[in-house]
Amino acid sequence: MSSVDETILSVSNLSIGFETDEGLIPVIEEVSFDLHTGRTLALVGESGCGKSVTAFALLKLLPPFGRIISGSIKFRGQELVDSTESEIQAIRGDRISMIFQEPMSALNPVFTIGSQVAESLLLHRHLDKKMAWQQAVEMLVAVGIPDAAQRAKNYPHQLSGGMRQRVMIAMALSCEPDILIADEPTTALDVTIQAQILDLMHDLQERFGTAILFISHDFGVVSRMADYIAVMYAGKIIERGDAGEILTGARHPYTCALLATTPRIDASVTRLPAISGRVPAPGQRPAGCYFQPRCPNASDHCGEQRPPPVDLSVTHQLICHEVVSE
């Protein structure tokens, strides 16, 4: 097993565009981050900020109209941006796996869950069908599915939402990947099942030493999972740092606003604030700071010039004209 904190994926200045009738529209702009063995990086932001598009690009799963414009994605030193389809297929589902947002649409309704977990083992580990099925059942046991040998013969519609999510995790971890991408893995689950899934992912991370890219809009969920946090807005990472730095010392107005909308058990506030406005669509982003139209601290030059990067510590950076004071 790799040592903890080894950098196994490095994304540098990644820009992505979508082909439209008006030409190539930038969607993701100069995104950079690293993933470390045994650690979790949370990518946080509202819907439409570009979190899932970034994740899909790592596995070259962009839609047909999506294009990587520039930048680098290096997995253990191997450049993935220029990789062939056969090269990325050898990595996808084996060394890098993904849990998709909605398990009912990600699972195939006409195959048993056991056969779907076994598929990666057949493809990447070249096991025979009997051995692949046996390991699939063992993986279902590992993710906490009761009576796994019998449940493996079930079809997705015969399982609850929480069980289907466990199956997705079993599929993603069946080949003991180096990296797990979890795209809003608990959004559709009730609070109790959500907590169980998060605990399960954390336990399996400790067992396998997996690096996790955890995508979410919910700081409450992120606070349970993340070692590092990168906050994304309108296709750009606007603040990043250790989890503690962001959760207790956020300085970007957008990050502060997101945190203010997160329920707190120790707070007396009964009505949570909302962030006015909405994330600008690609092609409709303002000339200066993209958050300026929604920002309570904005001044005139925020709408005219792109904000500069600000280093608050070795690990804590943000992009802002008007840094929120502590």
What would you say this structure looks like, in words?
It is built from eleven helices and twelve strands. The strands form two sheets. It has an eight-stranded mixed sheet, with helices on both faces. The two termini are 41 Å apart. 40% of the residues are buried. The mean pLDDT is 90.
Short description:
With about 325 residues, the protein is α/β, with parallel strands linked by helices. The protein contains eleven helices and twelve strands.
Specify the structural class: alpha/beta
Calculate Rg over CA atoms: 20 Å
Number of helices: 11
Distance between the termini: 41 Å
* Fraction of residues in β-strands: 15-25%
Low-pLDDT regions: none
Shape: globular
Question: What is the helix/strand order?
Answer: EEEHEEHEHHHHHEHEHEEHHEE
Question: What is the mean pLDDT?
Answer: 90
Please give the share of residues in helix.
25-40%
Give me the side-by-side strand order of the main sheet: 6-7-8-3-9-10-12-11
Largest sheet: number of strands, sense, barrel closure = 8 strands, mixed
Secondary structure layout:
Elements: E1 7-20, E2 23-36, E3 40-44, H1 51-58, E4 66-75, E5 78-79, H2 85-91, E6 96-99, H3 103-106, H4 113-124, H5 129-142, H6 148-151, H7 161-173, E7 179-183, H8 191-208, E8 211-216, H9 219-225, E9 228-233, E10 236-242, H10 243-249, H11 253-260, E11 309-311, E12 317-319
Helix pairs in contact: 4-5, 4-7, 5-7, 7-8
